[in-house]
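The instructor's notes for this session suggest beginning with a concrete chain rather than abstract definitions. Hand out the sequence below and ask the class to guess, before any prediction is shown, which regions might be ordered.
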Amino acid sequence: MRRARILLALALAADCVDGGAVPLEVFNHLEAGPDEQAARVLQAALQARGHVWSDFAIANGAAGLGTSLLESRVRSGNAPAIAQMKGPVIAAMARRGVLLPLDDLARAEGWDNVLPKAVADAMKHQGRYVGVPLNIHRLNWLWINQRILRQAKARVPATWDEFFVTAEAMKRAGYTALAYGGQAWEEQLLFESVALGVGGPVFYRQALIAQDPDQLGGTTMARVLHTFRRLRSYTSAAHPVPARQDAATAMASGAAGMLLMGDWANPNFYPAVQRQGDDFVCLPSPGSNGSFSFVVDSFAMFNNAGAGQRRGQLDFASTVMSPSVQHGFNLRKGSIPARVGLALQDFSPCARQSAGAFQSAVRDGTLVPALAMATPPELEQALRDVLSEFWNDDSVTPEAAMRRMMAVVRQHASSSSSPSSPSSPRSVAPRSRLAGH
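After discussion, reveal the predicted structure:
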């Protein structure tokens, strides 16, 4: 370990051609609200190491466009020094040989000893680090406005049957039961939560991660799609929340009784605003107690940077992994640190619950990746399109949706195995938010 640190220090010294600060362009999705506040923690820590953060932020609602733009820049030889991207994009970039290896730094700082295996594996290509994780988000959360729950004389639901009883009670009481912003990425997230709750983690892995045709077209998937469609009648689907007010904000302000959303919604509720006496509770989405669907925000560095930037890139990776940044960033983001062993006393109750649930899911084998963590962007987009059409068009039957899902999976497998098929991420439509979270 000591020898690795010495070699790393010598490499950094050799890369430092002068004492001046060199701007580092950071391609990211941390542009507004809690995300922007979290980004400031990174920016301040990088500045403290003598570097300048040059921001290239892509709106979260246009994260798919960001993937396309990043790909265009890489192809043109004008890649940013640092870019925020998910595991599948990191893997695709690593296969092309355009990422800066981080293994020397990882060994010197002992990343394998402080990262959960599932997170570390997502940051590696052929067993070597090429990415650095910021956090762990849990997707399978249900958030409830307890004031509305009490007024509806309803109960906190643990199963999907109980969820619909509670939603019906809220609807009768004059409330929108489920907050929904009208975006395709939300429909995908709702579907993933339903799939995990109805089918369980084994089905989820087989159907959504392994894309087993028997599971994609089976009776369990039919029940998942039926349950997924039922949700729509409890949203204000015909009049989704205004573009400037996302579903989490709407629910926090008392516009809806429940929200199925990842823990990036957390800062909307804690510290609680206490509008109209509102208070909130978080629990696993119906049927998913004991399971943990995760996504990791992460960065990778491109290897076309100059000598001065190379030092900044390694300093940035080291900064991201530092305990102070992992703590400060996630405290503001609503997620939990990727790094284990940090004190979370000042985190929200939901974040502390998430940390315990993650450890239990690792122990019990019920940890599952979100589609965004396990699926190439072009396939994720194609599946999202199928789900969005099914959600918005009642004439599309579950059987038709299943046939379409199987067709896009076959098409992707065929194009991926074609000798002429590109190994890089393809352009995707600009509607994905999960790509940014």
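Then share the key points. Residues 2-138+295-348 form a domain with the D-Maltodextrin-Binding Protein; domain 2 fold (CATH 3.40.190.10). Residues 1-18, 420-436 have pLDDT under 50 and may be disordered.
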